[in-house]
């Protein structure tokens, strides 16, 4: 499908369609073609319809070829009910994609955001659009400050995690508190978008529907978004380190590596299901999995003696602290967030 055929009506443009953007686009297409779009996680109402037209942009020729190959069935769909995809790259790709969209999903590297918004023509094209950002550290206020000449632009801040690649993300969607009588933040939040209006319920519902295609969503107030950056975003890496340690320990005791990996990952999947689907509190799962004098209790005692619980909690607190520093850097601060403090 050529760019000229993508109408502005019901069109979602994914700017910077890398790993995360591709995962979201793939999830959206599957949800529509398989009729499996779940309703927004916090609402029992019928979710708004997803766009039928998508535009994805990329800077690299290799990425353009990869995306074109991956989404070939959607480039020139013969069935009118099949969503269409346009892949763009080149110096004017982002501008064209924004001009032809009603909703923009901003998936570029957070470090590239100031350069992205430095283009006056691009800023003008954002007027009247809904911009959904997944950039960690960039608040609505910081993003609005870069687009002073698009007063009717609306921005929603979101934070998916890497599990979107397999349709298992937990995505935070920021819902600001009501504005005060002077247009400021009625709840006194430090993160304020000035006189810009809050997202409408329809905007929030559409955003929930989009991210429900790659997992679950959670509505979060601005004051908790920094913590969510770590709690939702860092946890997969923390779990990966723990899983790797379990596998290495099994290998050290003579268990074949491939078998150890299969066993540990399935055990983790089962434990998650017991807590999430079975409703077990983590402490209850621990109690039910141990017996007096048993091997599990023996192993747990070593973990407790070495301070696993406190170390993990301290790691999470540090991740949240660094996430806060990332936000301050995005708003013009200087420094290296992981330096000694």
TrEMBL record:
GO biological-process terms attached to the record: L-proline biosynthetic process
Compositional bias annotation for Pro residues: 37-51
Keywords: NADP, Oxidoreductase
Signal peptide: none
InterPro entries assigned: 6-PGluconate_DH-like_C_sf, NAD(P)-bd_dom_sf, P5C_Rdtase_cat_N, P5CR_dimer, Pyrroline-COOH_reductase
GO MF entries: pyrroline-5-carboxylate reductase activity
Span of domain Pyrroline-5-carboxylate reductase dimerisation: 223-322
Region (Disordered): 32-53, 177-198
UniProt KW Mitochondrion keyword: no
All copies of domain Pyrroline-5-carboxylate reductase catalytic N-terminal, residue ranges: 12-137
Family recorded in the similarity comment: Belongs to the pyrroline-5-carboxylate reductase family.
The protein's name in its UniProt record: Pyrroline-5-carboxylate reductase
Native source species: Aspergillus uvarum CBS 121591
């Amino acid at each position: 499908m050529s760019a000229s055929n993508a109408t502005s009506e019901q069109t979602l443009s994914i700017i910077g369609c890398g790993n995360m953007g591709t995962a979201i686009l793939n999830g959206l297409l599957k949800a529509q073609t398989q009729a499996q779009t779940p309703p927004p996680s916090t609402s029992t109402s019928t979710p708004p319809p997803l766009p039928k037209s998508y535009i994805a942009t990329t800077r690299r020729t290799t990425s353009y070829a990869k995306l074109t190959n991956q989404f070939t069935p959607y480039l020139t769909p013969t069935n009118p009910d099949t969503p269409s995809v346009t892949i763009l790259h080149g110096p004017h790709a982002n501008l064209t994609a924004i001009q032809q969209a009603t909703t923009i999903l901003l998936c570029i590297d957070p470090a590239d955001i100031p350069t992205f918004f430095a283009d006056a023509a691009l800023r003008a094209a954002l007027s009247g659009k809904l911009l959904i950002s997944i950039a960690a550290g960039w608040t609505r206020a910081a993003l609005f400050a870069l687009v002073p000449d698009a007063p009717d632009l609306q921005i929603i801040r979101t934070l998916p995690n890497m599990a979107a690649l397999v349709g298992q993300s937990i995505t935070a969607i920021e819902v600001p508190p009501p504005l005060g009588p002077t247009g400021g933040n009625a709840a006194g939040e430090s993160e304020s978008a000035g006189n810009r209006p809050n997202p409408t319920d329809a905007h929030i519902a559409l955003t929930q529907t989009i991210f429900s295609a790659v997992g679950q969503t959670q509505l979060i107030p601005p004051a908790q978004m920094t913590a969510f950056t770590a709690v939702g975003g860092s946890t997969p890496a923390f779990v990966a380190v723990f899983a790797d340690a379990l596998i290495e320990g099994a290998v050290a005791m003579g268990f074949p590596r491939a078998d150890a990996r299969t066993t540990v990952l399935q055990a983790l999947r089962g434990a998650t299901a017991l807590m999430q689907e079975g409703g077990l509190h983590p402490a209850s799962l621990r109690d039910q999995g141990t017996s007096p004098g048993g091997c599990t209790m023996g192993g747990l005692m070593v973990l407790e003696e070495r301070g696993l619980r406190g170390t993990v909690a301290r790691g999470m607190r540090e991740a949240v602290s660094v996430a806060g520093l990332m936000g301050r850097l995005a708003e013009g601060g200087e420094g290296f967030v992981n330096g000694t403090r």
